[in-house]
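Appendix C reproduces, verbatim, an entry submitted by the partner laboratory led by Prof. M.T., so that reviewers can inspect both the input and the predicted structure.
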Amino acid sequence: MDKPEGITSHDVVQRVRRALRVRSAGHTGTLDPFATGLLVVLLGRATRLARFVEAQAKTYYAVARLGITTDTDDRTGAVVEEHPVERLDAADVRRVLEGFLGPGRQRPPAYSAKHVDGERSYRLARRGETVVPAEVAVMVHAVEWVRWAPPELEFRITASAGTYIRAVARDLGAALGVGGHLRALRREAIGGLLVEDAIPLEAIGPESVRSPVSVLGHLPVVTLDAVGRGHAVHGRMVPEGAGEPGELARLMAGEELVAVARRDTEGWQPVVVLGTP
């Protein structure tokens, strides 16, 4: 799904449910209303696959507005501070941006879904409470300088699940001494799933529904015979097949996705079963 601007991820799911007349549907990885781009919507039994989609790295095109800090770290929030940016040097901006590459730690935005003392952070922030979410480990796999048109920086970033690009824009501005926030965001990819292959929301119909296998292209395939399939659909260990301990794989019987399994020392143990007896 190519999510348009101005609606929530939840609204997208509800529209898909109505268009396809399905009872069970869910998305993988929320996009804020001002953000656009790739949103994977899973239907029926395929909703069980959400964790495997969400765990993949995501690529975003982003626009950071330097010189203005907001309380939400994006353009929807109230302005907290303003600083001039005329003296910012492009080389310094590039250096700081490229400094995000690799492993690091990040403080999620106060207006986020992270839990603080057992409650969603954004709920506390909306009540006017001071919220300081704990830092989390993140990984930036790639960062690309696109364009510097002061006071805005356009960049592309590929980061681990759970990385807030709003926080990247905030921390970029803080490191440059002028503050900053995220003005625009478009999710371009989740692993090997690309937004250019996505269906526009207005074009959703039965013919646009794809096999659940299409969201698991990053997992290797273990081919099952009739006996192996019988084990897998009942959640039992499938002894055949090679693999590294802890590795995940698709268990396939022909074109049927029977299960997603994890390798242990004795074989493949299904963790999510989609096939039926």
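The first strand starts at residue 2 and ends at 3. Additional entries are available on request from the coordinating office.
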